[in-house]
Amino acid sequence: MSPFEYLLLFAAIILGLAISELAIACHRLVSAGDRVRWDWLAPLAALVVGLKIITQWWAWYAAEAFPGGLRFEMFIGVVVGGVLLFLLAATVLPETHGAGEIDLAAHYRQVSRRFWLLFAAHFVVVTGVSTWAQISLAGAQYGGLSRAYLVVPAAVALGFVRARWLHLLALLVFTGLYLVQYFGQQLVHP
Fold first, then answer.
1. CB under 8 Å to 116, separation ≥6 — which residues?
2. CA distances in angstroms from 89 to 22, 26, 59, 62, 165, listed in the order given
3. Residues in CB range of 69: below 8 A, 6 or more apart
4. 49 vs 29: CA distance, rounded Å
């Protein structure tokens, strides 16, 4: 096992915990049956988080092609990104303990600010670490801010704007972006 694979395994455990958190929360919602008042936003946000976790792992695997070694400080950023994904996964769907009704619309309203601020923080951390690694390890040149950085102010704004239609639109856009981001790519051992 290479040093990179050893580090990736540790980071992948965090992603595994995040996807487990989503799967368990989905199972508990379905098991709650008639106690659940269904709404689209929380399950759609859970789908976005699931796709975000999958694309994060895919990006980490692709990073093995970088020449040189990952530095400790960069790995801390990778771990922080994984923990932020876990927090997103833990936030997006409600707890189902107790005998009361579970209202998904009310839950999404309650957690939407935290969800979108965590979303923005994750984007900043992983994009920053990725840019840093590409410059330090792969000899890339810093090209300045791209349009992708508009995700941060958009996500922060969504944390404070309560328009359901805007949240639905954003979640649909992110679902599409995460689905097509790596579409057609193959895992190839470098």
1. 155, 156, 158, 159
2. 6, 11, 18, 23, 22
3. 3, 4, 137
4. 17
Name the H helices within the chain.
3-32, 41-62, 72-92, 104-138, 151-160, 164-181
- Identify the DSSP state of 182: T
**Residue showing tokens 């975000």:** 52
**Residue 67 to residue 17: CA distance in whole angstroms:** 29
pTM for the model: 0.89
The predicted-structure confidence for 79-102, as pLDDT tens digits, reads as follows: 999 999 999 999 999 998 877 899
Nearest to 126 by CA among 174, 89, 91, 77: 77
**What tokens appear for 185 in the block?**
């790519």
**All residues at 6 or more sequence positions from 139 whose CB lies less than 8 Å from its CB, including other chains:** none
pLDDT tens column, 40-54: 999 999 999 999 999
